[in-house]
Design brief:
The chain is mainly β. The chain folds into 2 domains: about 45 residues, no CATH class; about 130 residues, no CATH class. The protein contains 3 helices and 13 strands. Strands 1, 2, 3, 4, 5, 6, 7, 8, 9, 10, 11, 12 and 13 form a 13-stranded antiparallel β-sheet that branches. Helix 2 crosses helix 3. The longest helix has 10 residues.
């Protein structure tokens, strides 16, 4: 298999491995162990890390996922349409100092509703950084709902930007969760 075809075939695997590794060398070691075509050559290419939250169902029936992307000292947020597999990304912003995926709860919103928050990355917007993501809550039957918005680290408040949407979380199940997107 040619080097180009091998690279294309491993693209999804590479992104997944790089996103979960502690660095380029660790990812290359993992790939060499599982690559029957031979070792890959490490490059100085930047590592792109994508983390996504739990899907919400839009009014038109599409399952949309809010994702965060980190490249070096820059970050941005976007939406993944699960039906088409396409991302729509916002502009890049400098990262704030802490980049652990945010999962807080309960987080109060500007409208007084509290719920779990899931978001990433923390961008250098505002006095203490802003994290874009979703706030989640359960109804009386245990069904999960979410709404997109941003968490202001200076005020400790979630600012919703839309209505509550049905979540892909199972009723009564643990939610929301992070996952990596290839």
């Amino acid at each position: 298999m040619s080097r180009a075809r091998r690279a294309i075939a491993l693209t999804g695997l590479v992104v997944g491995m790089l996103a979960t590794s502690t660095g380029n060398a660790a990812a290359v070691d993992l790939l060499e162990q599982g690559n029957p075509a031979g070792p890959l050559v490490a490059t100085s290419s930047p590592v792109i890390k994508i983390e996504c939250g739990t899907a919400l169902t839009s009014p038109d029936g599409r399952r949309l996922v809010r994702c965060g992307q980190i490249l070096g000292d820059q970050g941005r947020v976007g939406t993944l349409d699960q039906a088409t597999g396409t991302y729509t990304w916002a502009s890049w912003y400098p990262l704030y100092e802490s980049q652990a995926p945010g999962r807080w709860g309960p987080v109060p919103a500007t409208d007084g509703v509290s719920g779990r928050f899931l978001g990433n990355p923390r961008l250098a917007i505002g006095a203490a950084g802003t994290t874009f993501g979703a706030q989640y809550k359960q109804d009386a039957e245990g069904r999960w709902y979410g709404r997109w918005g941003s968490y202001d680290h200076a005020t400790g408040l979630f600012h919703p930007t839309g209505d509550w949407l049905r979540s892909s979380c199972p009723a009564g199940g643990t939610c929301p969760t992070w996952h990596l997107e290839p």
